[in-house]
Amino acid sequence: MMDKDSVKQLDAILRPQSVAVIGASTSPDKMGHEILKNIIDSGFKGSVHPINPKADVILDLPCHKSVKDIEGPVDLAVIIIPARFVPQAVQECGEKGVKGAIIITGGFAEAGEEGEELQQQVIAAAQKFDVRLIGPNCQGVNNPHHPLCASWPLLTYAGKVALISQSGTVGAAMMDWFSEEKLGTSSFVSMGNRADVDEADLIAYFNQDPNTEVIAAYIEGIKRPEQFIQAVEQLQKPLVILKSGRTPKGKVAAESHTKALAGADAIYEALFAKYDICRAYTAEEFYDYAKALAYLKPPQGNRILFITTSGGAAILATDQAEQEGLDVSPLPQEAVEAITPLIPAHAIKANPVDLTGDATARMFGDVMEVTRKYYDTLGVIFGDPVEDASKVVTADANELIIFYGGADVERHESELMHLKGIPVFPTPERGIKALARVLERKTLDAPQRPTLTVPAAGRQLPLHQAFARIAEQGLPCTDFALADSQSSAVQIAKEQGFPVALKISSPDILHKSDVGGVKLNLGSAEALEKAFDELLSAVKSSNPQARIDGVLVSKMASPGLEVIAGMNRDPQFGPVILFGLGGIMVEIFQDVSLRLLPLTREDALAMIREIKGYGLISGYRGRPAVDEEALADCLTAVARIAESDPEINEIDLNPLFAYPDGILVADARIIVRD
Amino acid sequence: MMDKDSVKQLDAILRPQSVAVIGASTSPDKMGHEILKNIIDSGFKGSVHPINPKADVILDLPCHKSVKDIEGPVDLAVIIIPARFVPQAVQECGEKGVKGAIIITGGFAEAGEEGEELQQQVIAAAQKFDVRLIGPNCQGVNNPHHPLCASWPLLTYAGKVALISQSGTVGAAMMDWFSEEKLGTSSFVSMGNRADVDEADLIAYFNQDPNTEVIAAYIEGIKRPEQFIQAVEQLQKPLVILKSGRTPKGKVAAESHTKALAGADAIYEALFAKYDICRAYTAEEFYDYAKALAYLKPPQGNRILFITTSGGAAILATDQAEQEGLDVSPLPQEAVEAITPLIPAHAIKANPVDLTGDATARMFGDVMEVTRKYYDTLGVIFGDPVEDASKVVTADANELIIFYGGADVERHESELMHLKGIPVFPTPERGIKALARVLERKTLDAPQRPTLTVPAAGRQLPLHQAFARIAEQGLPCTDFALADSQSSAVQIAKEQGFPVALKISSPDILHKSDVGGVKLNLGSAEALEKAFDELLSAVKSSNPQARIDGVLVSKMASPGLEVIAGMNRDPQFGPVILFGLGGIMVEIFQDVSLRLLPLTREDALAMIREIKGYGLISGYRGRPAVDEEALADCLTAVARIAESDPEINEIDLNPLFAYPDGILVADARIIVRD
């Protein structure tokens, strides 16, 4: 939990007044030397205290044997000593009243059982004295605004993006790119093993940091989902996440459609979609998206005009723009006339405006001035060595600047633009993709927090009980009743009206059709009697040990659009609601949408509309549209069941028939905790 | 057509002995000065002749008034004078016996009708004297091996990749990147308007160029499909194509840029797949794929071991590798034991081998030596500033080198590796994607050339004629006969056996169901009689003018898997064969595969297997597999019809039913040329 006090305490790490370097070294090739030097060279304005029992002076600073020997308060300790000495060092920090510690040293939980034990000792010592910890096994912290570089390499450009990384390298690469492009960062925190401070803490911290406008986090997994969700719910700034570990190594056993399709990564997708988190899939997207969200002003709409020296570059940009759903709309006639006197006769006055290779920066500037009012964004592509390009562009003016094919001029002008805080993208495609992420971002309404529960192994409810649970939520189910004999089955069928279906009801049989446990479309008492016997004998011969509750008789549903609705309780994120086309569609095309709780009616409608096969729902080739409202009711009802009954781990309504005027649940599978 | 003579003639452009620069200028900021200077500064060893009627000496070279005044032979003229003077200049080149000309000047076909007329004059002059032309409206030619830079900027690194570009900028950006990375190129040709020499000529030329190992082409459309296909059929080297104009708007942009005739993108996909052309979708992929194909030795298989200093970078690499179908298989126990003494105790001995941030280049080298024999590729990720990394890597040794997060050390070591001819990729994802393209490349069997024909508007064959055309290829069709009356329909149905279907047969009705022209599942003579009347009156009331051939009576097909097979004759590429799942699947999910002719049996089987819904064909949830061989027969039969009868523009077999032991064509639509 990030309350105000703990935020203040992270200030001890990111904005300390005094720093002790425990393990400072006299030897220039040691990390304990480099970090001390970087703290000094980064321009840190507070006091710095090297700690090393064997030295008197390091880098002209007096050395102490222990942090406890320092006169005056110490906010932060940076620890670079062998792992086995770290618990004692943290203990001494606590005794001294140090508020935060960065443990660079590796050899803890990442290195096996012994290391795990050491890490527990470190945590215990820190908790005893309320010392907040970064690491262990990390690359430190760098805040170029404070300034303080308790990390490596020494990078000092101060910018707008806070980097949080579970991997030192991924974070360092981002730092390096932002530094190389003269944009800088607002802070870098390498989280290492996350023994204490994690992404939830840091997102909350940087949400309140005045220097940070965008947070970019590399994670391999979320450590505390509840706190993470709390942090992103309160977040007022864009968050870009590069989440690795996307592809499953092994296949999840297809116990149910919902479970098979709602794998770990799909859940992260759903979580990120819900909280408007911008997901990057590659290191380069991670950089581009963070850069765009920090330095591009959000446009009012998606209309873009390309202005370029290069027809080829503009076509590449247009391809990408169409793919991202931007509107590359034609240049209005009025604008055509306005730019005509400004540009060469052979220039192409359309969208893109192609100034041809003869263009000067001045021409770009003139055309930009005149056309600005007709579009939400000007996509300016300097596709040649355009000298002085940096002189005609403006920060925060809804200009997307791409510089491509300009060689040394490109490198020089791009640097000048970056120094002005104007982001420049190196290819048309990267620029457009990044702009699209800025356009996607919406304002958040702080949705409610989902309930998170512990998962458990499960037991399948008998069919009639499952139907009852569904029906009590007001969802129409197929007429059904449990028959214990051939004659009672016939009696039930006569009451329901033929044709009917028979299905075995047994807690031990998951896939009823696979064992001959289903008979459909029985049109008469004779057909039913025959089918009843066949069904029972097929089931008994294939599953002699199965407990049999009876045979479920249900009226055949009239044909409708077959869809699926379901819920699976994820160990980390709680209930995940699923919707998709049923039958073959779900198995072959995996055309489903997912959402986490809480599920609003709008969420439910959005789920229905975002599947690829939505055309089948909205009406197809003269077939009538089916009842979206009833489907949305069904999804919110499934969500209510999941919320109200934590014992239920899984719900599968499949098939669910959708009609022009309602729906019908034709089969239901509910797994409850054992 | 590229015969040996025309290849030799392109030598006049790419390997001239003497060059005239028509429009050479004394003014350093003019293109006519810069190109002359670049020719000299690139180290060109032949004679250089500036042509300018108003100057005596330019850049210390004696100037002539006309190319005809030069003593001795001239191989190449580079023309940089206003467009209106170019036809005369080309005429003079012809009279002088110049073999090739590069026309840099713009203002030709790309600039409207007047320019188009000028371009025609240029072409006429060139053809009269057999002068081969590059351009007009282009950025020239650069061959760093010869050497000769008749282009800008001056880039002189000689490498293995030949660049061909319809856009000066896209080509120049590639040149610049190859130059910045110290890899260089084998040649660069900016094709401009392609008045004469086009991509087909240049692919043929570079196929024979000893300095070229990979050809990389940026195109907006293929100029002469037949010659292009001929060139790629004979191609022995990898070809990477960045084809823009992918999306509908992008296509419009392509047409207005250089008047390229851009075909539908799906057809390009099919063409590239057929001829094993590596397609790039972005400028960056274009570079990475060309670089990988030129500098990475093709591995024997897809097993890869990652060796890294960074766990995070290795997870990103693994994600991408799984997505690309690489096999990140576990480190054999034998290898674990072999590397244990070589690396720190806390290193992770698995796949990836994580040496942790403490690793030295030496450790990398030791581990690479020991593990090489167990894998097809070593994926070496220097995920930190690893000094001397360049000393432990080897060219052509199936090492994929990624350097990421190494800041200045990364830049320095990468340059050293590039100078050794070892490609280094800047992120895990880019490296893996590029390697995957190298793995995909297969040896070509020089397939036969397709027949290309001119398209025409069409007329639909009556159903019974369409069925007859299909049946004569040995494809089983539904029993069918044309009835001219209710009673003859009943007679036919009795012979076929009930249930039957009725379908209107009229050349004027394309969508039969939409006008009530189809009645299915008629189980008795009575039902048939009633349906016959209903059908005719429905059709007559909706289409009173339609010519009616009769009513087709056909036996109902027994239910099978509904698929679609078809052919559409493309104006550029000739017949395109299509296969997909039928009914809703094809309309909603557009899950189809396409191929150009000629279609081998293997092609046909590959088409069937590459659709997403292949699971339905190979057997699904206990349903039997359907007859792939019969489906392949059907596709090759469709291809045969298309080949043998150029009058047929379109074939649509839909539905086509597939069974475990055969297929049945249940409906057929054939459009013939009017």
Describe the structure.
Two copies of one chain form a homodimer. The longest helix of chain A is centred in the C-terminal third of the chain and has 18 residues, at 525-542. Helices cover 36% and strands 23% of the residues of chain A. Residues 249-263 and 443-456 of chain A have low confidence and may be disordered. The first copy, chain A, starts with a helix and ends with a strand. In chain A, the strands form six sheets. In chain A, strands 9-8-11-10-12-13-14 form a seven-stranded mixed beta sheet, with helices on both faces. In chain A, strand 5 (76-79), helix 3 and strand 6 (100-103) form a beta-alpha-beta unit. Chain A is of the alpha/beta class. At the A-B interface, helix 5, helix 11, helix 14, helix 15 and helix 19 of A face helix 5, helix 8, helix 11, helix 14 and helix 15 of B.
Give the beta-strand count of chain A: 31
Radius of gyration of chain A: 32 Å
Major beta sheet, strand line-up of chain A: 9-8-11-10-12-13-14
Helix-and-strand structural type of chain A: alpha/beta
Number of helices of chain A: 22
What would you call the shape of chain A? flat
Q: List low-confidence stretches of chain A.
A: 249-263, 443-456
Mean pLDDT reading of chain A = 89
| Largest interface (C-beta under 8 Å) | A-B, 79 and 78 residues
> Could you estimate the helical fraction of the residues of chain A in percent?
25-40%
The percentage of residues in β strands of chain A lies in 15-25%
Our measurement of the CA-to-CA distance between the termini of chain A, rounded to an integer number of angstroms, reads: 32 Å
Oligomer: homodimer
